[in-house]
Specification:
CATH topology of the largest domain: Rossmann fold
Helix content: 25-40%
Strand order of the largest sheet: 2-1-3-4-5
CATH class of the largest domain: Alpha Beta
Number of helices: 9
CATH superfamily of the largest domain: NAD(P)-binding Rossmann-like Domain
Shape: globular
Amino acid sequence: MPVRVGILGFGAIGRSVVDSLLEHKEEFHLVGFSDVEQVDGTPIPQMPVEEMIHASDIVVEVASHAAVREYAVQIIESGTDLLIVSVGALADRSLEEKLLDAGPGNLIICTGALGGIDYIQAAKILGRIDDISLTSIKKPGVLSQPWMQDSMQEKLAAGDERVVVFEGNAREAAEAFPKSSNVSATLALTVGSWDTVKVRVIGDPEAKQTKHQIHLSGEVGESTFEVNSLPSTINPATSSVVPYSVVKALRTAHGSGYKIM
């Protein structure tokens, strides 16, 4: 019997996720979606949040950090599972604690454009992780943020030079880039420490793809993973693989109960 799926958010990523799941109707039944805006001409019905939650076995969040803050606890406490894409929202310590304590529904993390999760989890079980870092390289135009100095914003807008726009830990990265911090947040949750994961974000006009490079050292030895993903044609700030990562996460959660958290 197909698992009943509700969609929280129907922006660019939400539309792509719906299209991907409609290709797998034998596995997933899309009961509908909820969004703060009225959306016309959709392939599945729009409905109030409460109605969608109670009609679903699992809700997929593809909305925003704000939506996670507003609805995540409610969804999980209703007994419905929640798969979140806006993983960076968990950089908020109080929200992370509330979600980890909530139930009886399960909190499930979508790994999105991040690779090497199984290996990193195994390395953590093996023993000490001494150092783990993430370098993300994207086109300059998608990295501009309100907190940046005018000179940095001008460089990114010009898009004609390679610029290091951020260096810090995963929690700081999630706060600095709320719409594109999900990779660093997922990595932090995998190793169990927001402070341990060091993040560097670079704008590069030569970047034809979004590159995420992870370097890990510890008792397991040294490892480097590199993912080069084509950006979404609908939303260049995210990777084209994200909707299919949602499909994979739903299959895993429904089939074997495997979860990162």
